[in-house]
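note to self — DONT lose this again. spent like an hour looking for the file last time. sequence + predicted structure for the chain T wanted, 428 res
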Amino acid sequence: MPEIGEVARIVHYLRKHLVNRTIKSCQGFEDNIVYGKVGCSADEFSKAVEGRTVTGAGQQGKYFYVTFDRAPHSVMHLGMTGWIKFSVEETGYYKQAKESTVVEEWPPKYMKWLIKCDAEKVDGQDREPVEVAFIDARRLARIRLVDCDADKIRDNSPLKENGPDPVIDKHILTVDWLAALLRRKKVPVKALLLDQANISGVGNWVADEILYQARIHPEQYSNTFGDEEIKRLHDALTSVCTTACETLADSKQFPEHWLMKYRWDKGKKDSNVLPNGDKIVHLTVGGRTSAIVPNVQKKTAAVAGDVDGDEQDDRKAKPVKGRKRKSKADQEDEDEEEEVLPAKKDRSKKVKAEKAEVNGDSAAASKKTARGKKVKTETAEDADAGADVKTEPEETKPAKGKKTKATPEKEVKPATPGSRRSSRNKSG
């Protein structure tokens, strides 16, 4: 998902194509999540923006804002898949700023608003007409209006509830400030970095890069670090975030020694290594998949839990605090796929196969009873017990499913003596 560097890229293009221009028209597309979750509406946004002159654009971590010649102004968040597109230039960071002959579809899909500006002369320069679109396929973005003076926008919600930005707030985010933050909390250090209430803009891959360069294990508790380790963490935090912003998230410009260049081959043992041969492993910290290099990132004090990397079941490694913290941070940090889903699917197939063997006398009844919670639970437990289940199918008691879901009551009454239903009635 877009992190601090990608948001810096958006702000760069907003300043290039929109600042100091008058908005001729703004068409908002109603979305009760993207707008409604933050107390706004597409109609309110359109009326507030249309006819206004854009005076500035800026960011604080993962949030960015556009200010106008008068209030209200707009503060936005890209969520997981949000982006700002321009009709005159391709801005996607994944394109590596490379010239392309492919003409992109316009207007784009999944628009939340579409702004149009006429050709005009600004500061003695001719500026061509431009259309700007906010898109978001997954609807996790947020668009809101903030009624305040333009220079006070960071003193109002939602920006005031977020921590300092590692790039624009270097005068605040000092070594001493970071040391005090770490020592007054007891959470895994990666979870602390991902919490936007602590520090703005750090997402999953950025946090992994910071911790790798600082030679710190992501699970180590935040209150266990010495002065030297805190200084390394501060230097890496500032350096990684600054480089990501200055390069506008163009990964081709990232240093070759960065972990980010090699971390994406999860599960590929031959390729999931650094150029020097050090292995990259993945584990779950604070509910998020983390890439680490064990040869570099050693545990030097208490940690949230010892995990064996790729061989550990991610479900067992998720701490409760991490899940609460994730929801507190506006759902913005979901850029890694969990390993749990494939495991669940495989287990489901296994249970269904065993169920078919247990009730092989009636394929139709087996399909229906497999949906019953009680039968499914008993089958899963039997699967753990071993092969005894296949030799004694009566113990799984699938007839309850017949009574409640598969076979009407009146069809069961003429059942002959000795059937499974009759046996249970007699014993009861």
